[in-house]
Each structure stands twice: as structure tokens, then as C-alpha cells.
Task: structure prediction
Amino acid sequence: MTGYAQVSRETPAGQVSVEIRSVNSRFLDLSFRIPDELRQVEPALRELIAGAIQRGKVECRVGFRTLSRADAEPQLDARVLAQLAGLARRVAQAVPEAAPPSVGEILRWPGLLGEPAGAEALAPDVLVAARQALDEFVASRAREGDKLAGFLRDRAAAIGAIIAPLQQRSPELLAAWQARLVERLRAALEQTEAPVPIEETMARVRQEVTAYGLRIDVAEELSRLQAHLDELARILEAGSPAGKRLDFLMQEFNREANTLGSKAAAIDLTGASIELKVLIEQMREQVQNIE
Result:
């Protein structure tokens, strides 16, 4: 399934951005573009994305823009500041007449002002931005999934409209085919001089035609197609990740349509088999995009 999301986050060290995009794929294929300074977050990102997505060729890009020296905010070292305050109190106790240090003197104290945080300090913010981006990404894929589910329901309705009348007419079509075949064989026998009486031969013919009719009866295939439609509706209604189950179901749909075509003893069944295959192939192509 396709999807896209991008989140930027301002931090004291600079701006971090996480972008997640995907295209259709039957399996999960993750790739990352991360600056070397933030490469340590890749395992956590991989685990985060793999826990939320099961299918798709997914690319995750992480970027950051550090603050310039002019924009960077120096960091006070709380430990050094506490030590300096303690020293100032001890001096004031020992030398009461000594003036306390000014703010400027305190700020110039060695080690009090640290360097602005570097890229390595952005790792926690990267994960926060990644979670936000992943939430948006999953939501976008869910919207696409709803559209695909609607597409499958439409095709399933079309399949149901094909097989419903065939289920009602199947016995009629089979009986008509058997009657035509018997009449053709009778006409052929009447033109020959067989030593066995025609009526005795026709009794045997009717037995063979009936047996063959059982082999080409498509009622079972039509029933299984209807069962597959019911299962498709149940899977779509469940709403859980169902791509692989739908993959298997499409194979079963195709198998029944092929069998229906091979057994077709009437032009109605042949045409229905072709229409079914077209609809099933349309569904199969879209199912490969569903998670």
C-alpha cells in the first residue's frame, strides 16, 4: 500500500525531520536514509516501523539542521554551577567583607558554559518525531485501505450477480445439454445398421450421458464461489491485516473459475467463466496492495 507522512521537530540542538513513504509490495521491505551522526537510531526505527506495518516497500528518511553559532543557545552546566555556588558561600563565611561574584564573573567561570548539544543529542527527538510520522503514515494507509475494500466489494457484487442466476439455471442447462446429446446419438444410430436394437443401445447411451453429466455438473463450483464471496465479506468486515489471507482466497476464486470453464457445457457457462476470470484478476491485482 502507498502512504506518506512527514514530521519536523524543533529542539535546542536544531531541527529534526522524519519522512516515511511507501509503495506497493507483497512483502515488507524497509530502507533508511539517515545521517551518519544519527545512525545509532536505525535499529529502534526499524523495530518501530516493522511493528506497525506488514507490507510495502517503505523508505524512512531522517534529517537534521543544526543551529548556527549565532542561533545556538549555550548550555549551563548545572554541576559546575552548584560547585561555584558552594564555593561562593564558603568564601562569604570566611571573608564576610568580600564582594559576591557578579553575573559576568560567574558566566566566565571555566566549564560553566557548555557547547550546544550536537547531533547525537537528537536521537530521542528523532524517535518522538518518528512515532508522530508513523501515526500519520498508518492513518493515510488506512484511508487507502478503505478505498481498496470498496473496490473489492464492488467486484464481489459483480461476481455474485453472475453466479446467482447460474445456480438457479444449472440443473436446467445440464438437462438441456443431456437431451441434445441423446438426440444426436439417436439420430446417428438410426443411420447405422447396428445388430443391437436401437432402444437397447439408447438405454446404455442414457446411462453414459447421465454419468458424464455428473462429471460436468458445475453446481459444486458455483457453491464454492458463493462460499468464497462470503469469506471475502467476512475478512473485509474484520478490518484486521488480511493481505495474505486475501491472496490465498484469490487463488481459490481463480481455481473455481478455471474449473467452471473446463466443465462448461453451455455457452452461458463459458461466457460466465470468462467474466469471472476478468473480475477475479482485477481483485487479485488490488489484493497484492492490501496489508
